Amino acid sequence: xxxxxxxxxxxxxxxxxxxxxxxxxxxxxxxxxxxxxxxxxxxxxxxxxxxxxxxxxxxxxxxxxxxxxxxxxxxxxxxxxxxxxxxxxxxxxxxxxxxxxxxxxxxxxxxxxxxxxxxxxxxxxxxxxxxxxxxxxxxxxxxxxxxxxxxxxxxxxxxxxxxxxxxxxxxxxxxxxxxxxxxxxxxxxxxxxxxxxxxxxxxxxxxxxxxxxxxxxxxxxxxxxxxxxxxxxxxxxxxxxxxxxxxxxxxxxxxxxxxxxxxxxxxxxxxxxxxxxxxxxxxxxxxxxxxxxxxxxxxxxxxxxxxxxxxxxxxxxxxxxxxxxxxxxxxxxxxxxxxxxxxxxxxxxxxxxxx
Length: 355
Prior knowledge:
The protein is α/β, with parallel strands linked by helices. It has 15 helices and 8 strands.
């Protein structure tokens, strides 16, 4: 298992940076459950460069738990990306990760995200300038290409490698595919064979179970496995990958409750109120918005358990912290696996929280 820059990770399993999901409370939980690395959700270089108060709130991390602290930036201008990375370093970043894979039009139309797949020289320049400006290891996350006719992941690897990239993650779908269809793991295998031990390759895509993660390593030879949707509602996947037991009902409830409470605090501190409100009205609004923004997590945590649909319906009508806590304790205390539950794909809106 190759190091990432100066960092030798404790194992090969990494939490994927997911927009609207990889906020500090969830990253900390992933680390506690055994993840070796947990990059932030994508953060706007423009917002960071302009010292946007909203963007700066995304930089919060737990220095005691998040070691090393990997911060993901998105943007298309090398000089702006480099200046933003310097600010990120000042706020504690130890690894700068570059998003070169986001397929959302809002991002790609600016030449960022998957848009960089269409301009490998600019992508390489971003890596080079950030590395020179910060002295930090720079990693990147790409896709197999823009579409079926433009699969240029090997060329991207050559350009980014020459620029000094410390590790490269690949999601083996094209930008045109988005998150549909099946991830082509042969792309990961071809990429690892192509770069050898020049720098680590991180495989990503369709890792939903422990068995999937093991199979990815065995069939592709990748150095690390990045787990995204497979960790939604199941941060214990990292523990079980390392030989640990699945959570008991009591453990599950304790963690979900703790995650919810930490999310409420985090989201209230991160929220920017544009209107002037009395303290009690602001607190009520923060509480309502925090409850609503955690609903997706609650749905994922309930996935595959008896009574999940009834629980989700109750949560969708919850408006206060007490409403949620009461529903959590009632549901998770006796929750058991529903073997008849359909294995539906966890849905995630990657358009949110773009900084």
